[in-house]
Every structure is written in structure tokens, then in C-alpha cells.
Amino acid sequence: MKHISVRVPWHDNGWNSHVCANPRCNTFCKQLPNIVNSKVDCEQLSCGIDWSKLTTKERPACAGENGGFMNYKAYEREFIHIYAWNSDNPHSKLLPTKVMIPAYSALGIPFRYLNMDAQKDLSKEHPEFRPAESAPFGSAWVYNPERLYDVLKWFSSEITEESICVFYCKKGNPIDDEGLRMIVGMGNIVKNCGVQDYETTADYTYPLWEIMFSHSIRPDLKESRGFILPYKEYLELDENIFQGKGLSKIQALDEIKLSLDKFDSSGKIFDELSYGCDFISNHSMLLILEAARRSLEAVIRHGLAGSIEGWQCQLRWIDARIEHVKKQITPFPSFASALKALGIDYGNLIESDLRKKGCGPKDNPWGHFEKLLNKEIKVDSAVYNSSLPTYRISWEGQTSNVRERLITLSRFELESDVIEHFIDDVESDILSNPYLISEWCARNFIEKVSTRTIDLGAFPDPTIQGDNVPVPPFAAESILDTRRLRSLVVERLYSVLTDGDTLVSIKEMEDYLRDIMTEEDKARLPKNILLTHRQFFEVSFDYVPDENPTAIQLKEYYQMEEFLRKVLRERAKRDVKKPTGEDWLSLAMSDKNYDPTNERSQQATEQQAKALEMMDKKRLSVLTGGAGTGKTTVVRSFLCSDKIKAEGVLLLAPTGKARVRLSNMAENVSSKTVAQFLASLGAFDFENMKPRLTEDSRKYSRAKNIIIDECSMLTTDTFHALIMSLDLKFINRIILIGDPYQLPPIGPGRAFSDLCHYLNCDDADANLKSAITYLRTVVRTIASGDSDVLTLASWFSGNKPEKFADEIFWKIESKNLKGDLSVYYWNDEKDLPQILRDAICKELACSDVELPESLKQKIGIDDLKSLESDPAALENLQILAPVINPAWGTYQLNSYLQSWVGNNINRKGDYQEIGTQKIYKNDKVIQLQNILRESYPSKEKYPLSNGQIGFVKSINKGHINVMYVGIPHETFGFRGDKGEDQDAAIELAYAITIHKSQGSDFDTVFVVLPKTGRILSRELIYTALTRAKKRVVLLVQDSIGWLREFTKPQASVLARRNTNLFDYSVRAERLNIPYVEGLIHGTAKKGLFVRSKSEVVIVNQLVNAGVEFEYEQLLEENGHRCIPDFSFETPWGDRIIWEHLGMLVVPEYKASWERKLKFYEEIGYTLGENLFTTCDHENGAIMTEEVEDVIRKIKEQL
Question: Which own/partner pairs from 533-537 qualify as long-range (CB within 8 Å, at least 24 positions apart)?
């Protein structure tokens, strides 16, 4: 008997065998190929209708993908074999076969075991199976009916009325933007209908791949044996209802959802919820049931869906299932894997035969195995009999320690490669501490083994182990066992790396452990346990700081940050031995955009010359600045120096597009992506797509100047690997370029941002400050005037905007935009397509009828010969969205754009399927992998990089031939590969995510912004706004008002990260924000964060003086709006304003303040009376005396 998983698509009507309530807005189901290829708009006309009232052709596409597994009455379904259309195939004799689907039933296809790649291992476990045959055409599946019957009947035979069925959404759901697996319900199997045949006109037939079974879940919770989690009910409730419970809707959904993070992101459970219909091991089922119990307890606690009594019935069902599953678990679940690790084939078959020969489910199979080797047990005609003498020699040749370790390891559900490691690693004392196994697996990113995996073999439980319960010192007798706690901490420290944290506060970690103890056994975690047992714990992680520690950190990340801190600091302090002596000012002035008659141009050029001198002089330098400030211009000027080029230059960037842009700055200069560079030195792990330094990794010592662009995208470990891979005694200059206020890297740390703020902080010495140049003058708008886009973007940067920058919000609301920004509004997913279409038509100055041709012209696909010569036209226009799956995500937007361009109209055969998308000739696509690939016609190998934009030039013999921006006249072939499991190399790119756009820029950018979404942040919006070179078109949900909330420091995801690179920046608790000077500015007023260090001084002085104030309170006068820094109200109801002026030396800032001052004067504010100012001085500091003087004057009026 085995438990099973069944994949279902997301359904907005409870999987009740009705059409979705709003099919058009349910785009989550399109992650399944059979749905995306069949879902049609006419479903909207049938919304909410019972399937049984529709013909087979009228039913929604999800009817063939278990979209109605909660069907309360039977319906008929017709099956047509996928190969039946071809008269040359024997399948052509198979007839359409109608099958009645009983109420509350589902169908499962065991894809894993039908794949040809699985047949070799299956044959070892089941030598009785008849041989597998491949199809005479391209197919990944078993072809011959004999093997199909054998596999399907075996799979079906394991499903009994004792089995539990888990229903899950594989990709795409409205609960979690990035949820890869989410369980929606579970119940018992009540009937297995077995393997069914196709009707046929021949004397042979084939089996249906679908195995049908009925389950025990019912809508009435009191009558049901199993449940559907109330996601639908929670989604339909108003946010105010959740607030009445003291939490948000997102928090409530997080508490009830059953996703991978509830199973410690178990790689094993991930694998078991991946193949349509698959087995779930007893160990995994136990973890799922325990997590489900916690979810239902949250549902009961919330009291928002269904009856409390009904959910309590389901808790009792879960408890009964847990007891049942425990009885099914064997005490040595990895016996067969241990045999394989020892080099013994047919492990599963041997175990199966031993069970038949008297080895009970709770017996120790190792003793029976020895009897088999000694011929005390005989299995007639066993395929392995001839190998038993060899197996015996192998077993007897092991030391007693190795045998004991093998037996111990087989107590846990492990794969053979993990067992093999611990057989060889005799220094690991797993016999006294089995949790060393889960610690090692965490360090090596083996997600199929967790602390809870070890729990099931280490805790004595006769229900699981029978008479073979573990004993001390091996056994764990308490959930507070320090060995177990250390393993949980190590797992957590690795887990939070994906959130960006390189260390965690002791308090937050103890809170995490306390929650686990409470969930598991209502046990209380002793106070200060991490400090009390420090000597034992610090074997696996470090305490920070060493004396009076308040945080803990993985040893390798402590060492990485310590190394980077030392190298970056010391190189930033030091000058190169011999600068080039170039006249950098003249080089900067020679740029084609320099205008000697323009004050802003002059100041920008002076800043650029200063940056060039710094880059020439320093061993490590940082060039930073916002969008449009000329970072590219500076690098191009630097590369104009023959002296620099003579020393050699290597250009590096995290993304392919950024690499291409760098490579275009100078001829005969080598450029690579960071992954390509590290891989060339043997320092990159392509399997995990992570840097990996080994003893065999080499040092780079060719070019003396290393320029790294888009550094804000580099994780701490990538930064470390880069610096470690350079022969630093040979390298003259390391030049780091980027914008620290863009999205932080996907992974641990924020190294570039931390470095920028360290070099620029008030306490930095002159040598350090001279190693960074912050370009402040916007050069992009010198000729065209002020930029609405950059003004709006400045509100989402980490800096205080210019003084009259608040005017941009009034301009948007009053529709008074005249520059490079347009804003459109949409209400919901229903009207978004038309709003987007109308916006594109308006921006392209075309009618709706003219849109297809106008779009083609805009992105260059109307003239393929010109595009082949210069594919850069593809970047004329780009749609951006925060995520992929929702109706406003890139998947659906690509579907709209592909249709509007018209590539898919009347061209039924002129496409190829890759992943879950149909890609047609001329379609715009994006590269998803970093690979080296041969091109046509030159036959040269080019590095293709994740993020490169291209178009489909042709489709031929199952291959898509793509031409990329930056590589004209060359095409690269990709084989079509259908399926949601395929690791696609390309996908449609009319719309891409904002994350994927990082490192790229486009002429015109359309940005779709929903008002809700976990992923929204200040940095995400800033990154989106700064992708455009010429124009941004915002499509904002409802109104612009909510967007201003994301300008606040609290909306920063960058600032929430725990790091210890230069400044100790660790939140005390999970909900806190770490205070890092330059990243986020906390004040003495509780909960108030401000935008600059000077404002911190002002707020703290106001608090000390007992003066009430409002920060950035909207002021409306004469139909205009602005946002003063500080506002005060007099007893008679008048307002007093205090503005702090930060950068009056910058021409744009000064001009902006003069405009705002004029506005204040026009509405009745007079300097020194009801309008006060302070300003930063040349050193960037604010004078305390000036602040005190203003406070005194204001208090006199209050």
C-alpha cells in the first residue's frame, strides 16, 4: 500500500465540476500545457455552469486535468489516444472511448514511471516486467502496450482503500506569488477502478494511461473523511474582516496554506508532488499530515470559514491517519538504498523477497539479509541469485564499524548517495549524533533530508519501530535535545540565505525554535538556550560578535564577510603604484553629449572627470549614481584610454544583456557574464547555479583592470567568489559599478549596497571616501529638460528627492504630464487587457485596427532583413510586470501581446512548443539559461546569457532558430520540448518580469502595477521605472495614491536584510527592520523612519523638545499639492512648515527648491514667519545650533 499525490489546476470554484466563476481571470491553471493549449475565451460564456450540462467539447480544458475532482455527480468523459490520428501507428485502430467518471473521483497518470528514462531502474526492481520499447518517432514515453500494462497495473495495485490521496497545485495559485507546490486538500481512497482499455476495431488494444479512483472528501466537513483547505473562502473575504482578527489577509493565508515551506522546503516532498500522479512515502505523508494539523488549527483559531465542529472532525481524521501511517512505516526505510550504496544491485527486489520470506514490516531486515547471503533463506529463480556469492564477500569485507553505520543510516529515509558519503566519512560520529546527517545535507543543499527526517529514526516510537526502537546514545529522547536543536538552527541559517540574510539574531532564532517546539509538542524552549549551550552549538556556526554575542552566522558566511571586509577596505584605501596620468577632464569633455554652454552639462562633466581620476588612481573604486546620471558615459570614456587598454581590461556583468552593453563600449575588450567567468576558472556549480570554490579552482591573471557592472545584483557568495578568483597581486584596479537602490540580489546579502554606504558614511576616512563617486547630475535630460520618469523614480530611490519633486504626484493626478511619463488606470483583471491595448495604441499613435502592424514596426519584426542586421530594435518597447502567474502577470500579458502582434493567427503548424508556451516564427523571446552554443552559419560558439532578448527567425524540423540582440546574422537552434516540467531555454518576451529586466534598458517601457502582491517593494518599483531610456507608461491599479506608500523607508526590502559586512545590521525580531546608516533611518519617534540622516537629527531634537509634528503630511492649496518635510499646527489652526535642504550645490536641486519656494510664497508662506529652512553644509552635515534655533522659533508660535 502506498499513498499518492494528484496534480490539479487552480480552480476558483472549489473544483466542484463547474466552470470557473471567472475563467478569464483564472490564469493560474495555464501552467499546465493541456490547459494553455485548450483554454478558450468561450469558457467565460459558461462561467459557473455544471459540466454535466455541457457537451464534451463545451467543457473547460481543466476537465481533463482533474479540475473537477470534487464533482458531486457523475459525468461522462471521452478519451482519444494521442497517437490515434496517424494511420501508420497501430493506435489508429483505437476508438474514442467514453468513461463515466463517478462522483468525487479523480484520474492520475504516473508520468514518472512511464518515461523511458525511468525504465532501467524499474526493470531492476521489477525484472518480471516485459521489455520497454521506444516510439518509432520522437517521444519520451514507453510505446509498447505490454510494458504499459505492466507499469500501470503495478502502480494501480499499490493504491488501496488504506491509501491517502493528496491533491496539489504544482505551479500558479493566487495564495503565493511564487508558490511552486501547494496542497489544496487530502482524503482517503475509497475505490480504485484499475487499468482500463481503449475500445478498438482490432484484436489488440492499449491501456488508458489514466487510473481512476474515488476519494472520501465531501463538502460537509462533519461527513467527510478529508478536507479541502478554505483558500477560496479566505480570498473572498474583505480585508477588514481579517483586521478584526488582528492580522492581514496575507498573514491569515500564510497560516493555513500547505506549501513546501511548511515541510522545511523538503526536496523529497517537492519531488513527490511533481509528476502528475506519484507515490508519497510514509515518512513524507507523516510530515504532510502533521503540517495539515497545524493548518487546520489555524483555521479553527481564525473562525472565518466553515463550522468549528466540522474542522474539529477533520483534526480527528488527521490524528487517526497519523496513527495509521506510523503503523505502515518500517524501522529501516532505507535498507534497499543502503544495499545500493554498498554496491549491491536489486536492493528493492531483495527487500520485497525478504518480506515474502518472513521478514515482517517491523522486523530488522539486516539479519534476514545475512541469512539470504548464507543460503538460510532461498528465493527460487531470483534474478540476483548468481550474484549472492559476490554480495556475501562484499558484506563480510566491511568492518564492524561500517556495518553498524550502514544499519544506522538505514533507519532514516535517505538516498544511496547520502548513505555512501557517511560510509566513507568515518570521522562523522553519526552513531552518537545522527543529526550530523541533516546538518551535512543542509550544507550541501540536499533538500530531501531534514531534521524531521532524522526525527523519525532517532525518537523511540514503538508504533513506528516495533521492537527495534533506538537506544542511547544514538536515540533522541526529547524534542529539546541539543543535537536536534543545532540541526534545526543550521537548517534555518541556510534557509534564510534565500531571503537575503547572512546572519540571524539570537532572539529571532530562539523565537523560531520556540514556535517549532510549541507546534510540535507544546514544549517550552528554555531561555537563552543558544548562549547556555554555546560550546556545543558553535561547532556548527559562529557567534557574532564573539564577546556578548547577539547573533549567529554560518561559519562560511562569517569567513566570506570577514574576507570581503578586509580586502575591499584595504584596496579602497590604497592607490595604484603608477596612475596613467591621463587628462581625464579632456577625455570627459570630448564626449559627444558635452555642452560647454550648459551649466548642468559642465557640472556633470566635472563629476565624470572626478570619477575617471578616481578609477585611474584607486586599487578599488566604486562608481554609482541613479538612472540617467552617466555611469555608462564614464566607463566608455575610461575605455578610451590607450594606456588603460594596454594594461588589459576584463568587463564582467551578472546578466547577459548587461554583458552585451559593456562589450559595446569598446572594441577588442573581453566581456563575460559573472557565471561564465567563474566557470572558466572552475569556480561555478552549474547544477545548483551557484559559485563554488574548490582546490582545483584557478586564479585569473590576464587583464590588470577588472570592471564589474550591475554590482547590486551580486550576492555575498558571488562577490566573494569573484574576489577570490582574482590574482590580487597582479590586478591593478577593480572598478565596481551599479545603483545601490535597485533590487537586491536574489540570494544572500547586499554586498554592493553595504560597500557604498561604508565608503560614503560620515565616519569614513578621506582615503575611503575618495574611493567612491556618486554621480548626481542627470545627464539624460540635459537637452530635453526635466524628466517626469526620473522625478518619480527619485521617490523610490534611497535618497531624499529634490525639493519640488513632490509635484510629480499632483501632475499625475491632474493628468498634467507632458514629458516622458504616461499613467493609465485599471480596476481589475477584467478591464486590464483593454486598458493595456488602448494605452499601446495611444503611445504608438495608431488605431485599434492598425495595432498589429504598428507593434511589429515598433519592435522591428515587420522588416526581418533589417532586424537580422540589427536586432536591437527588439528593445524599442518592453512590457514589465512584477510576477508571472496572475492575470496581470507576464504569462498572460505575453498571451495578449502575441495575439495582438498576430504571429499566431492562421498559422496552425508554424510553431513549436517549449515548456507551456506555443512559440511562433517572428515571436520575441528571452534567453533563460547561461550556455555556450554553436551558431549558424558561422559555426562559432557564442556565450548566450540569461536575459538576452531575441526573435524567432525560423522554425524547422522541430527546432526554433533564434537571433539575439548583439549577435546579428547568427541564429541558435533550440529543440521544442513541451511540458511544465521542462527546463525551457527560451520563453516569450513581449512581457518579462521586473526582476528579469534588471541589467537591461529599453526605449519605451510599459509597467503593469497591481496594488496588491507580496513581491511589491520600493526597490522593485524603482527598478521598473529606471529601465526606460526614453519613456515609461505606467498602468496602475485603481489610483496613484497607494503607490506613494511604497516610497517610504518601511517599503524597502533591501533594508530588511541582515548582514555584517561592514556594519552590524541585524533585526532583533522578524518583524523589525535593521537600522543601517544610509539604508534606513530610524528616529526617536516610535515607528517613524525618515529619508536622510539630517532628518533624523531634526526629528530627535523635536522629540526631545516635546514638539508635536507631522512628517511628509500632504498640503493642498489652490488646486495644487506638495509634501513638506515637517508640518506643525498652531492652536488657532494655521500650519507652519519646515523644509530641510540637502544638496543646494547641485543645480537641479537648487532650481527645484526655488520652484517650491515660489509655490509656498504664492499660497501665503513667508520665510522666517511660517516657513523655516535648514540646510546641509559642504561636509554634508547639519548644524545642531541651526536646528535648535528653528525649534525655538516654532515653539514660540505653538
Answer: 533/482, 533/485, 536/482, 536/486, 537/482, 537/485, 537/486, 537/489
**Cβ proximity of 1032 and 789 under 8 Å:** yes
For the cut 90, the answer to whether the pLDDT of residue 773 exceeds it is yes
Show Cβ contacts of residue 721 under 8 Å, excluding neighbours closer than 6 positions.
Answer: 678, 683, 684, 691, 692, 693
* Predicted local distance difference test score (pLDDT) of residue 1179: 65
Average confidence score pLDDT of the chain: 91
Residue 533: exposure state from Cβ atoms within 10 A (0-12, 13-18, ≥19): middle
* Cα-only R_g, the chain: 33
DSSP run (H or E) holding 602:
helix 599-617
Highest mean pLDDT among 50-59, 226-235, 964-973: 226-235
Burial of 899 (0-12, 13-18, 19+ CB in 10 A): middle
User: Is residue 880 classed as helix, strand or coil in its secondary structure?
Assistant: strand
In angstroms, the Cα distances linking 445 to 451, 687, 1040 are 13, 11, 43
Burial of 497 from C-beta contacts in 10 A (0-12 / 13-18 / 19+): middle
Q: E strands, 318-451, where?
A: none
Residue 547 buriedness (CB in 10 A; 0-12 / 13-18 / 19+): exposed
Q: What whole-number distance in Å separates Cα of residue 445 and Cα of residue 425?
A: 18
Q: Would you call 831 helix, strand, or coil by DSSP?
A: coil
| Rounded Cα gap, residues 556 and 578, in angstroms | 36
Enumerate helices (H) and strands (E) in the chain, giving the number of each.
44, 44
Residues 640-656 have pLDDT tens digits of: 999 999 999 999 999 87
Give the dihedral of Cα atoms 1010, 1012, 1015, 1018; nearest 10 deg: 80
β-bridge mates for residue 259, sequence order:
182
The mean pLDDT value for 721-742 works out to 97
Domains of the chain, CATH where assigned: 3-328 (no CATH), 335-556 (no CATH), 558-775 (3.40.50.300), 788-1047 (3.40.50.300), 1083-1197 (3.40.1350)
For residues 651 and 660, give the distance between their C-alpha atoms in angstroms, rounded to a whole number: 10
Q: Is the pLDDT of residue 1012 over 90?
A: no
H-assigned helices in 1112-1183: 1147-1162
Tell me what percent of the residues of the chain surpass a pLDDT of 90: 69
The b/e string for 606-631 (b: 16+ C-beta within 10 A; e otherwise) is: ebbbbbbbbbbbbbbbbbbbbbbbbb
Res. 1011: pLDDT tops 80? yes
End-to-end CA distance of the chain: 79
How many CB atoms within 10 Å of residue 865? 6
pLDDT digits (tens, 9 = 90+) for 295-352: 999 999 999 998 999 999 999 999 999 999 999 999 999 999 999 999 998 999 999 9
How far, in Å, are 78, 122, 348, 549, 1152 from residue 126 at the CA level?
32, 6, 9, 57, 78
Band (47; pLDDT cuts 50, 70, 90): confident
C-alpha to C-alpha distance for 350 and 327, rounded to whole angstroms: 22
pLDDT tops 80 at residue 41: no
Residue 980 has pLDDT above 70, yes or no: no
Cell numbers standing for residue 219: 463538502
| H or E segment and range at residue 972 | strand 972-975
Q: Any residues with CB less than 8 A from the CB of 191 and at least 6 apart, and which? A: 102, 161, 213, 214
Q: Within 10 A of 1013 (CB to CB), how many other CB atoms are there?
A: 18
Query: pLDDT value at position 322?
Result: 96
Among 355-359, 423-427, 642-646, 1000-1004, the least confident range: 423-427
The rounded distance, in Å, linking the Cα atoms of 1096 and 1174 is 13
Cell of 704: 590588470
Whether residue 1180 has pLDDT greater than 80 = no
CB-CB contact of 1068 with 507 (8 Å):
yes
CB 1034 within 8 A of CB 1007: yes
Cα dihedral sign, 762-763-766-769: negative
